[in-house]
Each structure stands twice: as C-alpha cells, then as structure tokens.
Amino acid sequence: MALTREQMAMRVARELQDGYYVNLGIGIPTLVANFIPEGMEVMLQSENGLLGMGPFPTEEEIDADMINAGKQTVTAATGASIFSSAESFAMIRGGHVDLTVLGAFEVDTQGNIASWMIPGKLIKGMGGAMDLVAGADNIIVTMTHASKHGESKLLPKCSLPLTGAGCIRKVLTDLAYLEISNGAFVLKERAPGVSAEEIKEKTAGELVVPDFVPEMSF
Amino acid sequence: MSGFDKVVNSYEEALAGLEDNMTVIAGGFGLCGIPENLIQQIKVMGTKGLTIVSNNCGVDGFGLGVLLEDKQIRKMISSYVGENAMFEKQLLAGELEVELTPQGTLAEKMRAGGAGIPAFYTATGFGTPVAEGKEVREFNGRSYILEESITGDFAIVKGWKADRYGNVIYRDTAQNFNPLAATAGKITIVEVEEIVEPGKLQPAQIHTPGIYVDRLILGTFEKRIEQRTVRQSG
After folding, report:
1. Interface test with B, best of A26, A91, A121, A131 (most B CBs within 10 A)
2. What is the ipTM metric for this complex?
3. Residue B21 Ramachandran class (φ > 0 left, ψ -120 to 50 alpha, else beta)
4. How many domains does chain A divide into?
5. Cα separation of A21 and A135, whole Å?
6. pLDDT beyond 60 at B234
7. pTM over 0.95
8. Residues of A forming the active site
9. Hey, of A47, A50, A56, A85, which one would you mutate to test binding to chain B, going by the most B CBs within 10 A of its CB?
10. What is the average per-residue pLDDT within A71-84?
11. What is the mean pLDDT of the segment spanning A77-83?
12. What is the CATH number of domain B11-122+145-218?
C-alpha cells in the first residue's frame, strides 16, 4: 500500500532530532509539524521571518501581523524570534537550518530538483524554494513516486527547469524512502506491502536495490 | 521644528515627486505589513510605467493589486505573484513584465542596494533559469552566480511605531521586507500606526534608524488577512 499523506509526514518526522531548527514547505511537509515526537523540542522556521512557529491562532488570537510563509495566520511559539526577510534567508543560505522538507515535481540521480515551473503553464514564482535548496545541507523531498498518469518523478535527468542543481540527497515518496548517491537512487525503505520490484518499475532513474530493504512500519 | 522631524501631514506630500517610469521598492509579504495607504495614493496619482520591487503583487482589489487596475505597473520584480487574476491577464497579454527572483536573493538585493554593495555572489539559482546570463564563479569548489543589488527612486514602507525622527519599529511578522526596502530608496516613505516624540522609543529596539527615512506619515490600516486559519479554542 502506498503511504498516505499523514504516513509520509510521520516518516519524515522520524528524521527530527531534539533541538532541530526545521523549515517545512507547503503541503505534505507542513503536516510533519503534527508528528513531532512527545518531549522533543523542534523549532519551525518560516521564511517570512519567524523562528518558532506555533499553532494556528484561536478566533480571539487572530492577528493580521502574524502570518507564516504560506500567508496563513499563525502564532509564535514560546522562545520564538521575529526578524527581517534578509535575516531569515541569511540563516537559510548560511546553512543554519538543520532540516528542510519540501515538495517537488521531479528529482534526478544527480540530486537536481525541479519544483516551481512547468513550461506552458502560468509561472507564479519560486518564492523561497531556490534559496532553501541551495542553502540547506539536510533536505528531504516529499512527493508521490509517479504522476497521476503513472510517469515516474525519479528521473535520470530532470525534464523541467530546475529549482536547484546537485543539492538533493534524500527523497521520501508514497512508495519508498531513497537516498541519492554516486549518480543513482538507493532504495533504503519500502512502504508497507510495496515490493522492490514495483518501486524499480516506477523509478525511471537508475535504482540500486540492496540485498535487504526494510519495510516501513507505522 | 527639528531638522530631523520627518513627519508629513498628507499622503500627497508623502509621495510628492513620484513620476512616471520610476522604480518603487515596497515592503510587505503577501498582504502582511504592506504600505496600503501609500499604494492607494499611487493609484490616486495615476503614475504610470512603474517598476515595482516587492515580494508579491497583492490581490485583486487590495495592496499592489490596485495598481494593476489602471495598468500603472510596467514591471514587477518579485518572488511569487500567483494571487491575482488581473496580474495573470496582463502578463499573458504582454502588458506587464515580471522578473521572478528567489525570495532570499530579492531580500539581499534590497539589503545590498541600501548598503552600497552593487552585487553579490549566491549559490541560490545556480543551474536554474535564474542563472541565465549571469556570471558564475567558483568559491571553495562550489558554484555561485553574481546577482546585482537593487535601489529604488522611492521606497514605501509600513511600520508599527515611529518617533518623529523616523526611527521605526515593526510589529511581528509585518517586519518582513520593510526594513530592507527602507534602506534602498533614494526617498524612503514610512507609514505607521503611531507616531511618538523622540526619546519615547528604546534606542536599542529600533529596527530602522531614522537616517534611512525621509518622510513619515501616520495612517489607519485595514490589514486584510489573506489566509485566515484558526484552531478551535480550548
């Protein structure tokens, strides 16, 4: 069975460590905040200038001056700090964020990522994605393994314009957790009940399958 | 009156000197911390052919979106412009030019512009369409592209509190691009919710020192919310 969005978020949450500063992108990455293990302290960075993002406000707490990078109203967590956009991207570009989680359209065996532009469709912009992928050492890309039409999103070479070159090493899809190493995807974990053969079939880029590939459990 | 007193009493006075084809740098992220009354005054003035440097372009009917209604904007330099239908229409019709710039690079372009640094190298955008036509240089085995900084004829900024000398404090995440924009305008105009006498603000708490501010005006703000998200109380 392919992982649900929640299971993908749960799997990513296992990469969190106590004391991590984490930037979560829009979509599945946002859900990771719901699965921070009990007793673990993690601070969420929002690139519009907030380190220590709290939960959504109550009706009474809503404040137009307090939003996240998705332009949603939020609160500040205990111990948060607020700063300018230049400061925010200094901490991102300077490699100070411990973990970045973001979505993508395509990833390839060279660690390239395409996530912002589909030629022929209206281009809204890259927002902070290019800065995030260029600045972070520890990035997890979350996406479905294949498109709705069954086309693999794990490619020998990205076909869409890039968001960043050679910057991705970890990918979690609805079928597998993979790492990129020496110009190939390496299958590290399988979704429950999904065979290595099925993953291989749906991976267009070169896939290395170790002798033993553990199955994820939830 | 002190030579440091930056207060002006009307929005006409605040934006005096703005002319067609100028570059205006605007603070704000989405609709948060936008200089909404200064934008409205530009609409009233009808200034055309503007290049606007701002992370976003407002929404239909609010924020920078209102300047699209009479086609006052010739070019937007932004990181994300997906929130208004009118923007899309004018872009597809070729009436509007857009230069998409990564958000951190945009912030740094303003910061560097205001700090007298003409260009800087960044890894952001290397190997992507953003790098096209830009100088690439390697430092410590990694490739970086040369990005030029930005200054504006005017900068329009939304602050929370200021003293009459133009020392400004921002409120919460309404800070965003505002302090960067404030440094990068030949003429910087700040609109705020409260103006106090000099000495009333803690010097070490000032985000934008008055040296960057040319004109200061007291405004009232709608502060529209783009994505109203709540949790259940209790």
Report:
1. A131
2. 0.96
3. left
4. 1
5. 14
6. no
7. yes
8. 47
9. A85
10. 97
11. 97
12. 3.40.1080.10
